[in-house]
Amino acid sequence: ACDGAAAGDACGPAGIGPAAAQAREQPVLEPVLPAPAEEQNGTDSAKAPKVNCEERNTTGIERFTLQILNVSQDLMEFLNPNSSDCTLVLFYTPWCRFSASLAPHFNSLPRAFPTLRFLALDASQHSSLSTRFGTVAVPNILLFQGAKPMARFNHTDRTLETLKDFIFNQTGIEARSDVAVTEEDWEGPLPSVLTKGIDWLLLFSVLFLAGFVMYATIRTDSIRWLIPGQEHEHQE
């Protein structure tokens, strides 16, 4: 549940399965490329980007926005394994308040980095992808180069500025300075309002457990005499 997640700053996505509990103990994903060595010259030298992203051509694009995958769309269809372009992917759930608070900030990122791509998907509807990329809590943000995950956003302060810093530190691409969170970003495309839903898996589990307990209780010989019509059978 949302309020029961570890560290109190993430929500556990539904539909991931029992393996998520074990996956929680695994170390977080770190950038694959090693960090460059710093020059020992007494001054802070500029660090080379950890991920060399191929910036896309923005000619003819008038509106920069993120794309939300529906339940029938596969993330791997939007990632080109033969390309070095970069995509920032958000795993979220519409019932998680931390995902909702992140939404307007993530909605503004495509305008800040028009040469990068931004995708979002409901982790509860894409449980196989959540397990594949170690998403045991949402919101979870991964930076892909081609079809390979390169870095994970691990900050608990999820704002436009911290997201800008994360992208710059990983790719060396500077954000546009005139971009800020607007009222339109609060409206979409990523929802910033919580939606209520029914956890059908949990409901089925509770009903199954209740039915099993009732069946086991009725079948117990020691209490059959409490049930009308079973007294003579018990005496015989």
From TrEMBL:
InterPro entries: Thioredoxin-like_sf (IPR036249), Thioredoxin_domain (IPR013766), TXNDC15 (IPR042418)
Keyword field contains Transmembrane: yes
Protein's UniProt keywords contain Nuclease: no
One BP annotation, GO: cilium assembly
Entry superkingdom: Eukaryota
Residue ranges occupied by any Thioredoxin domain in the UniProt entry: 29-172
Gene3D superfamilies listed in its UniProt record: Glutaredoxin
CDD domains attached to this UniProt entry: PDI_a_ERp44_like
Keywords: Membrane, Transmembrane, Transmembrane helix
GO cellular component: cilium
Spans through the membrane: 200-218
Protein name per its UniProtKB record: TXD15 protein
Originating organism: Ploceus nigricollis
Encoding gene per record: Txndc15
